[in-house]
Amino acid sequence: MDYHNKNLPHLIVIGGGFAGVELIKKLKGKPIRVTVFDKNNYFNFQPLMYQVASGGLGPDAIAYPLRKIIGSMPNVAFRMAEVTQIDTVANKIETSIGAFDFDYLCIATGAQTNFFGNTELEKHCMQLKSIPDALDLRSDILQEFEKALNESNGNSIERILNFVVVGGGPTGVETAGALAEIKKHVLPSDYSELDANKMQVYLVEAAPRVLAAMSEISSTKAKDFLEELGVHVLLNTSVKEYQAQTGELLLSSGQTLQTDTVIWSAGVKGKTIPGMPENVLARGNRYQVDAYNRIEGLKNIFAIGDIAYMSTDKAYPNGHPMVGTVAQQQGKLLAKNILNELAGKPLKPYTYLNLGSMATVGRHKAVLEVFGIKLQGYLAWLGWMFLHLMLLVGFRSRIIVFTNWMWNYFSYQRAIRIITRPFIPK
Ligand SMILES: Cc1cc2nc3c(=O)[nH]c(=O)nc-3n(C[C@H](O)[C@H](O)[C@H](O)COP(=O)(O)OP(=O)(O)OC[C@H]3O[C@@H](n4cnc5c(N)ncnc54)[C@H](O)[C@@H]3O)c2cc1C
Question: If you ran DSSP here, which 8-state letter would residue 192 be given?
Fold first, then answer.
């Protein structure tokens, strides 16, 4: 099956993330031409992004070249370009490198950080949605330490060394835990002139517990782990306002924290593309799809992964969680369904097979719920590491991650404590 065979139907896939990659892998060598567009030339393994931000891993450990994935697929081509517009009538997309026609379109653009319309928070908070974000955060953390060294005013030092993470989902919990470990192990050795006790990490969560998608026992244990590491966990608390100039972060409890670093991990929303009919937009800025991931009312346009809002799955009437497993399962099934449609066979509806969830707080401290088994502590931590190593794309990435983890474990350090591209606050 040759990409240049114009007699084959043409599928355009927007996004080479968890969903898009699974879709194209399953279409390898099949009677369909596929063009994948992504604004980056790599697949980003987002679950380990907080480790890049905290200096435990380099970006190349979690990013994998899309061309390497596609290289061996005779019917698939990749274009590094941003898709800027979709014309659902003319079956055409506009991109940063020109316009392209399609017979079928699959939108797999994922999600973006949701600041819930607060432009001040959006402007001044750090986020963790892309590799450049992670590198910015890594630089910012180290720059704050460098800044604190040259500050003599106690109040200013407090503000510089207060790190506030907003959102107690897996990303917030893992980032807060990583910061607490930096305080414990990196600050005393690299910045011995600083009083490590002056660094404080806060985790602000609006709900009554962290890791709300997990069981009560895992949530409680994760909070205990965080507090053992010295993180101040503020539950039932939301952010009201942040004045970046004065460093004042006003909380719903009335408390004001002084900080130069607010890390926002309190929500995501779908990453839509202009041109789609307005009536297909559903909750969370996601596209409403039917049980086959077909966008409502559009015969040849599909959405999969974080951007898709499916309410037909009985166990998930409010849509599926925005996680990698849903994206991968939908990608795989859509490949089969497109091939079935081309062959005139019936399509199979999607139902989510929940394989579980997990989060790590720090060394020997994790919570894991898989296949109905609930683990906390050391075993969960080992399980978390094993599963993440298995989920990484490519043998090289696994080796890099494994050796970095071993180094970090035995040295109690975060190997990549370097500011290669200084972060300039807005
Ligand atoms: C910090 C973090 C930690 C996470 N941890 C976990 C975890 O532990 N377990 C878990 O299951 N899930 C986790 N997730 C969620 C998981 O990463 C997402 O659910 C998953 O990536 C969704 O896959 P996707 O294919 O829909 O989108 P993505 O994987 O985000 O891929 C979208 C792709 O589309 C591209 N794109 C977007 N817009 C355009 C455009 N206009 N033109 C061209 N290209 C475009 C992007 O560059 C990207 O490559 C985490 C997410 C984050 C941010």
Answer: T
